[in-house]
Amino acid sequence: MTFNSKQLAAIAKLAMVMAMADRVIAKEEKTVLTFELMKFGLTQLEAVGVMTVAQNMSTDEAHNEIKAMSLDQKKYVTGYLAAVMASDGDIADVEVEVWSLMSVLCNLPTMTVGEALEFWNTH
């Protein structure tokens, strides 16, 4: 799966929103967020740059960037957001609500958490 730097920033923006849904960013959520950028071969400096762009990006801009992605990219985003949500071992109701809202706003495919995680884990 490939993404350009703006797409990665949009994904990171939504991941940050997801991590904050229950008002607590768990250590595990930070780890998943950071690891994901490294998985795409970014250096630490490049990852910091992407995170800076993500922090300054509006949620509307992130939604629009993700809406324009291919179906497989959207499935990956859906799975990644599910992974952030599940990473601390506790999926709060508010996290599921935010995940569902993001799915609608970004025109993400309808998937169960299990389906989304499976796709993310295999791509």
Characterize the structure shown:
There is one protein chain. This protein has 123 residues and is mainly α. Helix content is 73%, strand content 0%. It has a single domain, classed as TerB-like. Helix 1 (5-20) runs antiparallel to helix 2 (27-39), helix 1 crosses helix 4 (59-67) and helix 5 (71-86) packs antiparallel against helix 6. The longest helix has 16 residues, at 5-20.
Supply the CATH architecture: Orthogonal Bundle
* Secondary structure: number of strands: 0
Average residue pLDDT: 88
The structural class is mainly alpha
Total number of distinct structural domains: 1
Low-confidence stretches at least 5 residues in length (pLDDT < 50)? Answer: none
Number of helices: 7
Over all CA atoms, what is the radius of gyration? 13 Å
CATH domain class: Mainly Alpha
Proportion of helical residues: over 70%
Distance between the termini: 6 Å
Reported for the largest beta sheet, the result is:
none
User: How are helices and strands ordered from N to C?
Assistant: HHHHHHH
Q: CATH superfamily membership, which one?
A: TerB-like
CATH T-level fold name:
TerB-like
Q: What oligomeric state best describes the polypeptide chains here?
A: single chain
* Anisotropy-based shape: globular
Sheet-strand content, in percent, reads under 5%
